[in-house]
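Quick start: what a row looks like.
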Amino acid sequence: MAGPSLTSPNLGPTDGAALVAEIESLAERLGHARSSVEGRFIGQEKVVELVLTAILCGGHGLLVGLPGLGKTMLVDTLSTVMGLKSSRIQFTPDLMPADILGSEVLETAADGSRAFRFIEGPVFCELLMADEINRASPRTQSALLQAMQEKQVTVAGQHRQLGRPFHVLATQNPLEQEGTYPLPEAQLDRFIVQIDVDYPDRDTERAILLATTGIETGSVTEVFTPEAILAAQQTVRRMPVGEQVVEAILDLVRACRPGEPEAAARVKQAVSWGPGPRAAQALMLGVRARALLNGRLAPGIEDVAALARPVLTHRMALSFAARARGESLSEIIDGVAAQVTHIEAAA
């Protein structure tokens, strides 16, 4: 890529060749994993790419879509292919924080002595599926905040480490659905990407019907292990990023903040608050992961444009006046991304 390497400036020829070989080998392995997942989650290549991007970045993904679009099956398939111990929590209005984190119970031994024993909740896993996360109360939603950010939880005054790796893939129904609670901004910011799952087109729906209503359904095999995923996450962080890409990330994030001098005109008119530094960090990791998934050795401007909407949508909010006018946050982000990168964002 054009521009100097910013992430590996001191690599010698031998180290550089080793990193190239490592990236190429990992890209081939990721191709097998991606094909395996897409074999069951038919016609949603972009969704699969974004979920794998979140995992390669060591982050979490928020899947947004109506019920019945295969979000649960996607997470189940992913846990098998990536070799991760998974748990599933069905969020409901009466779910309590202890149902997620676990709790201490008082046990009586055979000799009559009593002691507290901690019973782990479903959060103690490597891949957690939080199903319909916005159907639970804000108090229960916030129980995941520490787990998602620090990879540990505090119960009864003790810090308890979670699995490594640890990823949350949460599904969320659109907020217009009855019985939903908006996620707090602090928790939304913990998700590295928002992944919109839409209805399939006619040909894709036909393929789904033929593949899922017969006697046999597609099987998947394990491609990765937890140790291999941790190693892949380190490889992503070692990938070089050109100066042009870094500047495009900074231009994009700062242009989406209404209070910044370089904010886009439409952003100043329609956006209440914009993305923070965590959004830039997410883009910096995400463009590397996307380049790797597409078999490239370093990210380019096109990766910044492609990830603008998934990374920024849940980190921004329209003003009341903009909502009343019927403006779309996605269209605003696409416009700013096109202006910054000179590439029209994909629909």
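That is the whole record. The longest helix spans residues 13-40. Residues 21-238 form a domain with the Rossmann fold fold (CATH 3.40.50.300).
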